[in-house]
Write a structure and sequence with these properties.
The protein is mainly alpha-helical. It is built from 13 helices and no strands. The protein has helices at about 5-20, 25-45, 60-85, 95-110, 120-145, 150-170, 175-210, 225-240, 245-265, 275-300, 305-330, 340-360, 365-395. Keywords: Membrane, Transmembrane, Transmembrane helix.
């Protein structure tokens, strides 16, 4: 029997080591693949076109997997890549990172097949990943004495609590499935408002300084920014605690308007020629628009409330996620911070997905066609990201 060529094993091991060298690599790829596959599954489940072996009702499974499955992986990929820059410590990599990714996958499987096991067991398996991840992030921030970013631990705790509340529904302990899902979405939207509000003007300022030094720069962080973030936090808390009420709607409109005014001060129109940068402004605009739309719809009732919510989920979270994933992947793998045609196509697909989902209630007899088209565009955006960026995420840094 001829010997197995050693070089193939060595190459495979080297590529695996590269893949597990930074959190963004396995988590961004896993999140993109789950987004591409999970959303069509949830749409089929919602429309009774398919039956899934889960204890979760269709709407809660959809919200759970998008907020805590997909969203949890995105947050993990971002934080595990950002924290070493914040603390100066080595990133989580190798077997510990592989173990964390395995816990995330275990949670997805446990929720998907939860009907075949005790509800408490599926909950424990799913909650293992966020619990361990909270510990990892808290340990790194404390060890690096990076107290400025300690609120990230609070955000992760809220995601954990929201996830737990959805499981309490499946365990028939409390009717908290909807509030848990809302808490997950609200936490992700607040992270977009905070992190997007930090990186969008910063990257815009750097780009303008290089390409148009005489141009006006984005306005520095000030009173309007503080008010907009505070108003967004209050509006999101009110939506979780008191949804479908006029006072909450007013708070949403105030927050949306403040975020929109904040966005106007970042000179987004001047970077429209660079999709990798302009998409950050577009993602932030979806946050402002989503809050305005939800608030206005609660008062005037002109469209389906689930469609207005998707301005925040498919629009803000979906767009900003791809914006951060593409930019971080290109930057951390040594690629030019310029969007190629494939990347621009990803942005176009996610924008079309969000628009179709929000406008679906106005398509009359073609409502379900519009929903299917929106899901297809979402899957295309994230599936194409996985395909286009696979080599970057699994291969060595460009020289």
């Amino acid at each position: 029997m001829p010997p197995v060529p050693r070089y193939r094993f060595q190459v495979s091991q080297s590529r695996l080591a590269i893949f597990l060298s930074a959190g963004f690599r396995p988590f961004f790829l896993s999140a993109a693949l789950w987004a591409a596959v999970g959303l069509p599954l949830s749409v089929a489940y919602l429309e009774a076109a398919a039956e899934l072996p889960t204890r979760f009702p269709p709407s809660i499974w959809h919200a759970h997997e998008m907020a805590f499955g997909f969203g949890g992986a995105i947050v993990a990929g971002f934080l595990l890549t950002a924290i070493p820059n914040w603390t100066g410590r080595m990133p989580l990599q190798g077997p510990p990172l592989a173990g964390l990714v395995a816990l995330w996958f275990l949670g997805r499987i446990a929720v998907l097949i939860s009907r075949s096991m005790p509800a408490g067991l599926s909950a424990a398996l799913d909650l293992a990943f966020p619990a361990v991840f909270i510990y990892v992030v808290a340990r790194e921030i404390a060890a690096g004495r990076n107290w400025r970013n300690l609120p990230m631990v609070a955000a992760l705790a809220l995601l954990f609590i929201g996830n737990l509340l959805t499981h309490l529904k499946t365990m028939e302990i409390a009717e908290t499935g909807l509030i848990g899902a809302h808490m997950g979405v609200a936490t992700l939207v607040m992270l977009v408002a905070l992190v997007g509000g930090r990186i969008t003007p910063s990257f815009t300022r750097n780009w303008l300084a290089k390409t148009a030094p005489g141009e006006d720069q984005p306005s520095p962080f000030g009173a309007l920014d503080r008010f907009a973030l505070a108003a967004t936090l209050v509006a999101l808390v009110a939506w979780v605690a008191f949804p479908d009420t006029t006072p909450t709607a007013v708070l949403q409109i105030v927050a949306g308007a403040a975020l929109f005014l904040r966005l106007l001060r970042w000179r987004g129109a001047r970077v429209r020629g660079e999709p990798l940068l302009f998409v950050l402004h577009l993602g932030y605009a979806w946050v402002a628009f989503g809050l305005l739309l939800m608030g206005a719809n609660e008062i005037f009732s002109f469209m389906d409330s689930t469609a207005t919510l998707h301005a925040l989920t498919a629009g803000a979270i979906g767009t900003m996620t791809l914006a951060v994933m593409t930019r971080a992947t290109r930057g951390h793998t040594g690629r030019p911070l310029v969007a190629d045609r494939g990347t621009a196509a990803i942005y176009a697909a996610i924008t079309l997905a969000a628009l179709l989902r929000v406008l679906a209630p106005f398509t009359g007899d073609y409502y379900f066609v519009a929903l299917a088209a929106a899901a297809a565009m979402w899957s295309l955006a994230y599936g194409f990201f996985a395909l286009l960026y696979f080599g970057m995420l699994t291969g060595p840094r460009a020289v």
